[in-house]
Amino acid sequence: MAAPDLTTFVGATRLKNPLICGAGEHVMLEDGLRAGLNAGAGAVIVKSINETTAGKEQLQRTDYTLLNAIWREQPWDFSPPEGASLLCRSGLAQQSFEDWLDLVVRMDGEAQAQDAYAIASLIPADINHGLNLARRIEEAGVRILEVNIGAPHGEEAIKGAILLERDAARVRKITAAFRKAVKIPIWIKLTGQSSAIDALATSARAGGADAVTIMGRLMGFLPDIETQAPMLGTRGAIGGPWALPLTCHWIAKAREKMGPGAPIIATNGARTGLDIARFMLAGACAVQMTSAIFTGGFPVITECLREFTDYLIDKKMNARDLIGVAADRITAYEAQELRPDHWKTFLPDAGI
Ligand SMILES: Cc1cc2nc3c(=O)[nH]c(=O)nc-3n(C[C@H](O)[C@H](O)[C@H](O)COP(=O)(O)O)c2cc1C
């Protein structure tokens, strides 16, 4: 077979491949953004900003710890063990908005020359301010805007720093306001801390989002077994490969509600090239990868693209062929054949 076609579409936007380097501290500055693009990402999302000084200040209070599968701290040496989780508190970009915007414009120009995108990202604190920033982003010539209205730290960060929206009606209203403010594609990134993420996704689409990004990380609290204090001293956002099935669940639910063409971007749980395939099989048209790159370094991008390509070669498929294939094969529990004693094969040996 000829080399597989990695091209995918997020709404009307064509990406050369579905790997999007998601927003984080490693893509706040020029070097990191360039490294993400040079490693081959279809797009890089520039570290989010908003209008508040609280958001910037929050970045001075960040901390991060990498944990293995039994919650022991691991060295931060850019070779995280398989299964590692990341517990952290993050903040927002520290540059002035003008400097940040200048950076996004420059990087989006560089990205364009590589058939890629550098995407602006807002985590608004106040919607009216957010709309103003969105207008300035569009006027400056940036081609895509992601608006994260569900950052996990919303309720723990300094008051007024970050908006965390869980109400479907308000998601629709907020999205509609951004839609009215700008014409460039808007991706709405949704919280993972809701029991109705599919409803939030349909609301964002109804409000005019070009795509929805599902789903932000969850908040956690991990007692340190030695010191008996909270790890990092606070609650924190937590993510790991274990989050992938949770995210796939909501992507598939959202696809069920919105229909097969639904422009859904996955985030939360991708660690490998095969995870890109898993998210696409669940219904995503593209996949954001953040922790894997933050903790593993930019070569993770190239490695994941290689693994993803090998998978497509093996399956004789192109990237777009994967979208929703597994989601559309989900059956109901009651559709399963009856196997009366099957459960007994899973019991532990009761003899001593
Ligand atoms: C250190 C760190 C910083 C982050 N900063 C941002 C941010 O500025 N804007 C944003 O929308 N998401 C941010 N995120 C969320 C990620 O982009 C991503 O959605 C989340 O980590 C789940 O995906 P992952 O499993 O690939 O890490 C951040 C995540 C981490 C770990």
Description:
The protein is of the alpha/beta class. It has a single domain (8-346), classed as TIM Barrel, CATH 3.20.20. The chain has ten helices and 15 strands. The chain has helices spanning 30-38, 53-58, 97-113, 127-139, 168-181, 197-206, 243-258, 273-281, 291-296, 299-315; strands at 8-10, 13-15, 19-21, 43-45, 63-67, 73-74, 85-89, 117-122, 145-148, 186-189, 211-214, 218-220, 236-239, 264-266, 286-289. The protein has an eight-stranded parallel β-barrel, surrounded by eight helices. It has a five-stranded antiparallel β-sheet with strand order 6-5-7-13-12, with no helix packed on it. Helix 5 (168-181) links the parallel strand 9 and strand 10 (186-189). Helix 1 (30-38) runs parallel beside helix 3, helix 4 runs parallel beside helix 5 and helix 6 packs across helix 7 (243-258). The mean pLDDT is 95. Flavin mononucleotide binds at residues 22-25, 47-48, 86, 88, 90, 121, 123, 148, 189, 216-217, 239, 243, 267-270, 288-292, 294.
Q: Helix count, per DSSP?
A: 10
Gross morphology: globular
- The assigned CATH architecture is Alpha-Beta Barrel
CATH class category label: Alpha Beta
Instruction: Enumerate the spans where pLDDT stays under 50 for 5 or more consecutive residues.
Output: none
How many structurally independent domains?
A: 1
Helix content: 25-40%
Strand content: 15-25%
Bound molecules: flavin mononucleotide
* CATH homologous group name: Aldolase class I
Could you give the order of strands across the largest sheet?
3-4-8-9-10-11-14-15
Radius of gyration, in Å, reads 20 Å
Mean pLDDT: 95
Q: Give the topology string: H per helix, E per strand.
A: EEEHEHEEEHEHEHEHEEEHEHEHH
- For this structure, the quaternary state is single chain
* Helix and strand composition category: alpha/beta
CATH topology: TIM Barrel
Largest sheet: 8 strands, parallel, barrel
